[in-house]
Fold this sequence. Notes:
Chain B is mainly beta. In chain B, 5% of the residues lie in helices and 42% in strands.
Amino acid sequence: MTHGVTTAHAQPQSFLRRHVFSVDHKVIGRQYLDLALVAVVTGMVLSWIMRFHLGWPETPVPGLGKLAPTGAAGGVITPEYYLALMTMHGTIMVFFVLTTAPFAGFGNFFLPLHVGAEDMAFPRINMMSFWVTLLAFLVLLSAFFIGDGPPLSGWTAYAPLSAVGKDAGPGQGVGQTLWAVSIAMFCVAQLLGSLNFIATTLDLRTRGMSLARLPFATWAWFITSVIGLIAFAVLMPACILLILDRVAGTSFFIPAGLVISDRLQPHAGGSPLLWQHLFWFFGHPEVYIAILPGFGIVSQILPVFARKPLLGPRVFIVCLIAIAFLSYTVWGHHMFLSGMNPVSATLFSVPTLVITIPATIICLLWIGTLYGARLRFTAAALFALGFVSVFVSGGISGFFLAQPSTDIYLHGTYFVVAHFHFVMGVAAMFGIFAGTYFWFPKMFGRMMNETLGKWHFWLTFIGVYCVFMPMHYLGLAGNVRRYSAFTDDYLQPLIPLHRFITIAALFTGAVQLIFLYNLIRSRLRGPVAPANPWEATTLEWSTSSPPPHDNFGGHPPVVTHGPNEFGGAGPRDYVMQAEPQ
Amino acid sequence: MVKKEEGSDRALHRGIGVGGGPPPPPAGTISGKVTYTGTLPKVRPIDMSKEPNCVTQHPTPVTTQDAVTGPGNSVRYVVVYVSAGDQGAPAATDTVHYDQKGCLYIPHVAAMQVHQPLEIFNDDPHSHNIHPLARVNPEWNKSQPKGAPPIRTAWDQPEFIPVKCNVHPWMHGYFAVLATSHFGVTDSTGEFSITGLPAGTYTVTAWHERFGTKSQEVTVGGSETKTANFVLTARPY
Amino acid sequence: MSTAVLPPAPTLPGRSVATADGGPERRVAETGVWIAIGTISMSFAALTSALVVRQSSGADWQHLHLPALLYVNTLVLLFSSMTLELSRRRLGSFGLHATLILGILFLVGQGLAWRQLAAQNLHLATGPSSAFFYVFTVLHALHVLGGLGGLGLVERRLAAGALSRTTFKAAALYWHFMALLWLYLLALLTIRG
Amino acid sequence: MGKLFAVVVTLIALASATIFALHIWWVPPDISTHGSRIDRQLNETMVVAGVLFVGAQLALAFFVWRFGASATARPIKSFPGGPTPMVVLATVLVGAEILVLTLVGSKVWADVYQTPPAPGALQIEMQAEQFAFYFRYAGADGRFGAMHPELMNDASENFFGLDLANDTTARDDIVVGSLVIPVNQPIVLRMHSKDVNHSFYVPELRIQQDIVPGLVIPLHFTATTPGKYELVCTQLCGLGHYNMRAFVEVKTRSDFDQWLKEKAAAL
């Protein structure tokens, strides 16, 4: 273990260097969060249009006919446009929201603060990581405006649909290539980011910051980086192969003898399953990249508002490591029915079920932490508690999908949509919300409005259950996912339920305006935040809100305590990490 | 929406666009009949069972349309057009209608001049997809859900473009995009006529999607009507 | 959990570039390179498994006879690793220059090998073995190019007298890894390619 | 605030679970020989998952209710026994569940996917394409004609790329757009894809399987109840994915024979 203080760079004076092309991890963290905010609003609007279409497929969407004259002439959404929206929704949400906000965003801002460093290990690489991410996002969005529109092969981009080019449908031309380029760029950016997180955690910890004293969120970011380092290192070459199949005439993923749009495709010998293996080898760990930071954030926030230490901190870390390790052994559960050897299904099923053990332990630790607590119900605390609830809901439906025998029935249905939206979408979003309410004062030096925050929580909490719980029922009834309209006879009775979900989704989406308003208003006019408004222990609360350019004003903290010291007797029930012994 | 089935049938025989204005100068006509020799491919019933409301629209089973023949070995859906010797004529400006009804393209073959406006309608209570597999012209691929406005377009280059509905594999048709405005498409008795021809010598070509092309020279003088019959060779497979 | 033994208080300048051993910044460079080695290995491992799967998925795999030039290039790259190591041990600039030149030579050699293959009408899209050959060698060449950039930086710092031993060590580590990765790729392409 | 949270979480948990328990939306009746075992596995998982779900949500609700901030002055209490009971509880409870589900479930899976089809099963070929399924019966000679991708032609209804000019075994192949099968007859469906990934899903048959271009994937099952069911595609295959379906008609033996005879006669 070594000591902090190193990468200090003088604060630049020009506006551009300070706020735009800054190498300061705090600016970069905020930039990532701003990017995620733009992305999440985009992704949410896309989901609104999709949900509206599913409820009322023949009703024109007001104004959409002008925005998308090809995809939705007269506002009536075409099947390909629906799939394009769906692909963009999934891609934007998974990559540019669930990866950037909880991991790259909060991680960048707080990981160096947590370890007592003045900046990341490689500030320039850090800056590059953000700008490449932004560029990747713009490349992805450009698919809306170039050629036949965005691709329609979903965020998983299964080959050969994604590999054969425009014969496979509108958007499978330029749009799909832009998608693959964007994702490859995103991989590079996240590899650079992960490299930074790991090096910073290993080498830039301040005096006294042993690994055991690392705050839980930083542990989670650290482990997430290790996962990301492996996962994105696999997806990137996979994207390169996909791009080559598309533009250079190779046949990595395209078998011989395909006839698409009446044209015999000039490819031979490729393996569609190869793409699925490469993709899910990344894809399942990616789920943990999205959710582990949430675990860390919740584990850090709950003790602060429960005013007692997290139950079993070491167990928590061990479970995180176990999850990270197991996450690389389970990808095949996405492929039970893909045509791979059925014997391997059982082999993939066992680790998939086993991974629920550490996840269950973590949930029980959170609930056990509440025992005997003195809960303070701030918006951040509510979202952390809500996280536990929605994560449990989403995790449990995983039991059905982890078993090949029940997956036979539920695989391609809305049950899966419900499962992953709860467990990685909603749960991760709750982690992001909790983190935002918790850290906003530190990031911007102003408090958020608690009343609005609580309204935001209650309406969102009820809303997401109304949206995603019924999707389990749809799945049980055999409702296939990724359908732009329900023309099958057996799906007709389910349309009222779809309409209910649509209304709930529009409502829940509208509720987020409260959050947006709170965010903007508090940034401008919120009450000035003290250094440690929540009486928390970790290092970021030892410095001013917001922290100075070098984080600790030239006096790197010396750590003498763990992050988990709450509930002491006396006038102050907590001990800060940098407090003299 | 207007019923256009009859209208489209009319479009089959029509030569050039007939607009208002002063009466045209005396003009000749080429008409005739297209027949086949050889063995026809088997006509197969189209199985539309995946789209039940198209099944119910056809009381008698529909058969494949890539080789439709009539009495006296006549061949339907043959495009007969002036391929050389055209002296120029006012461009066809009336709109060609192309319908999707009962999961069929009506007409199966729509002939048009380059730049002639084309309108594609969906008369079915569900979504269709129109995918002209163009190679010379820009290829496009659009769906037309129920209730969506008609697709208005035109083609810039002469080309015989196969049209495919990606949603209903059996739906196939052709856009015959021609440089000339002098063309006709054979009807159910294999007959066609090309009108409005000034005096001159023309190469007239008959094109069929399976039976290939045949050409012959025809000289038209004044306002006479010349006959030009074509015999195409059918192959069973 | 607060029983960790604290190391002696650091007495380091804020921006450490000295040649004395053990400063955090230099250590960071080395850590960074190790992490990069991990992630690059993972990428090439993924591509290797792709090669194995692709080989068994289609019957169209035809063994690609590697141009003999590649073995010369291998020697050049290995030699460049040796000169770099010499230079690093003595902090001399001669070996470093030699490494840079040899590194460029390696890339030129790879370029010639590609041209030789292209002359035999073996292109990226010709077949799966040629496709993998180009993917592997081009990706490796790009990483070597990155390594050359790093060595260029080392050279500049060395000339300015501001080079730390561990920065040099980190750069050398990466360069040796490039040689090792190339040996692996050569073996893979010879045996399975 | 804590009490409100507890009440909301409890209501949500109970309401959600009740709808599951009442089977308001549920799987359609099973019509296959293997489906009852899948249903049993589904039901068992549902019970276990339901208990865990309700239990966890209620525990969360109870703790939040009980330890809300009302007693600020009260000293905090540690969970009795620390994290150990949690670890033991999770490992034992979930571990046992995993063990049971895996032991039973892998057998169910193996029955469907790892057993050879019954001898004398009816062989049917399937071609999945954007965006329809086509089925092929061997015809009088009991042999399927070879498939030639370059001959596939939707316009002339040659979905399987049969070489009718030269291949006599192909000429009597019956190609239709619905899967018509006799009841209680083991079926082997050999699935091809002409273009991209598709998936075969008949909820009532309790079977789902991806179809991968370049591979021939066999699937076997036996239907037990005559009727008309829907086969849908569950693997995203392009713009018409939502509309990619076919009907499955399970007929009595005699009806099936009659149907096959009519189809053969129409050739």
